[in-house]
Amino acid sequence: MKKLLISLVAAAMLISCAAFALPASQAEQDESPFAGAVPPVDSLVMCMLERDYSYRPASDDFFWASLYYMLGIYGSEDSRSTVTDDTVSFPEEVVWDYAASLFTDFQGLPPVPAGLEESIGYDEATGSYVLARGDAGLSETVLGEGTPCGADSWLVPGQVVSLEDGSVLCEFEVILTESDQMFPYTVSDLLILS
After folding, report:
1. SS3 string of 34-55?
2. Is the pLDDT of residue 81 over 70?
């Protein structure tokens, strides 16, 4: 009888463990293959919407404004950053890593435009860029299924969804290209649809 009871308890534990493992496995299956591209795409979309920009990597204003969003919102999570109550600073190599995810043809950091010098500073003593901290706001960027559109590139639809009521605030399309940089994809183009 004792052996039967032990066997039943062991079986119950196995079933229980398997049941707890199912949601994690399902969550992994439901996650978009482009999840690693959300931070750069979200940063670009927010910059484009709030500043009424189109995707223009050759524009120094657009380049630094987009990078400001990316570093200000997502950079404080990077272990190489230095965070205070109201600023976050990054060594130049970190800024390069983030810029490479925003622009496929990234070649180097242009000078910070005069209009953004109050928001983005450079500390020559430490070789770091210093920014005011930002926040992600009350929305979420969601990426859909991709359609191949070239060598190692996909056309991916996306939406910005309100976290308050689930409404769609914006729809867009982005071209993502595989990358061997810090992020698994880099943005080649982005178009706001609505």
Report:
1. CHHHHHHHHHHHHHHHHHCCCC
2. yes
